[in-house]
Write a structure and sequence with these properties.
2 domains; about 80% helix; mainly alpha; globular; single chain
Length: about 375
């Protein structure tokens, strides 16, 4: 029975690794479809708790959700299998692009497909928001917290302040209602210093740079861009154009955008550099999730911490809403992309059993055809 579970985990996350276009919000929507709605590994409520917990630690959110799901279904072996199967397709595909880029000095022309993919994935994300939002917003207080968090996120407030602020505010409300004057708070689980690396350039320096980034980075691929610009471009190790191209590859290949590390590592040190950069940036997520996962159910049993998790869950949905707004600003630029967005929303809401991968593929094809018009 255990072996069957592990094989199932491998199939699910290998599939998601190959078809997971569109960034963390879309990956999480696909996971919700696969592990909650289709296979019922656990409830929507527990899935929400895992999203909230994932947002509290640094690293790539969708990869960490894959690790959580694998751990819940198959223990430590399930965690390792889910993570490896979700990450490897992106790493292999990105590695191929990295080799071609190093050899030919350019990326293929994929803009027509990206033109359609971006608005299509917004539709998938909106579907996730509606599904999880119904479970997350349990009362009017949580609705108000969610709206405030969404506004703050759109205004550019750091997401970790929003998440912990929402959680602490909910604990304060809980104790205020219980007429208790003091309460214990929690601190972020991990704060790792950004150590300065010295010495001659080597593959191991690449490993330590990406290990540091994976251990302290909160946020999206845009935040990753800023970190790597400081670590690599400003130190003269990498050109800014190569960094831009690396982030682009991470965006248009399936799987986590952190696979950009594979591309950069290849440019810095060939196959060995790619392997060390990839290992460095993803290793902290395996450790963080392994330590955090057993605590989620424990926290839910405490009434005060349950209030904290409820608020963090709502804040996480609010952050997804802010992602939709940001994606919409840059992706829906004319009537063609607006049409693809509307079709994506319609298909995901009307055909709930339709695999979201088909919506994204359909968006890519529509984008290519409309690009030619």
């Amino acid at each position: 029975m255990e072996e069957n579970k592990l094989r199932e985990i491998a199939r699910v996350f290998l599939k998601l690794g190959f078809i997971g276009f569109g960034g963390p919000a879309v990956h999480i929507a696909m996971m919700e479809e696969e592990v909650v709605r289709k296979r019922q590994w656990f409830t929507h409520e527990h899935f929400l708790d895992l999203i909230g917990a994932t947002n509290l630690i640094p690293g790539p959110n969708s990869t960490e959700m894959a690790l959580h799901c694998g751990r819940e279904r198959g223990g430590w072996r399930g965690l390792l299998i889910a993570g490896a199967c979700f990450i490897l397709p992106a790493v292999i595909i990105t590695g191929i692009f990295a080799w071609a880029y190093q050899k030919y000095g350019a990326l293929p022309q994929i803009q027509p497909f990206i033109y359609g993919i971006k608005p299509a994935v917004i539709g998938v994300v909106i579907s996730l928001m509606i599904t999880l939002g119904k479970k997350a917003v349990k009362n009017s207080k949580l609705l108000v917290i969610g709206v405030i968090c969404a506004v703050l996120a759109i205004l550019g407030i750091n997401e970790i302040f929003i998440l912990f602020g929402a959680g602490f505010f909910a604990i304060a409300l809980y104790y205020a209602e219980k007429r208790v004057n003091t309460f214990n708070s929690i601190a972020p689980l991990f704060f790792l210093p950004a150590a300065t690396l010295s010495g001659n350039f080597s593959d191991w320096k690449v490993f330590w740079i990406f290990l540091k980034v994976g251990a302290i980075l909160y946020g999206s691929g845009y935040v990753l861009f800023a970190f790597l610009d400081t670590e690599l471009v400003k130190t003269g190790m990498l050109s800014r154009q190569t960094l831009v191209d690396a982030i682009a590859v991470g965006q248009f290949t399936p799987g986590p955008v952190f696979s950009s590390a594979t591309f950069i590592g290849w440019q810095l040190g060939g196959l060995s550099g790619a392997a060390k950069a990839t290992a460095g940036i993803f290793l902290p997520s395996f450790l963080f999730v392994g330590l955090l996962n057993p605590l989620v159910s424990f926290l839910r049993k405490s009434k005060a911490m349950s209030a904290f998790l409820d608020a963090v869950n709502v804040a996480a949905i609010a952050l997804i809403a802010a992602v939709c707004v940001e994606m919409g600003r840059s992706s829906v630029t004319d009537w063609k992309t607006g049409l693809i967005l509307a079709a994506g929303i319609a298909f995901t809401l009307l055909f709930k059993k339709l695999n979201s991968a088909f919506v994204i593929i359909g968006g890519a094809m529509a984008g290519y055809l409309l690009w030619l018009v």
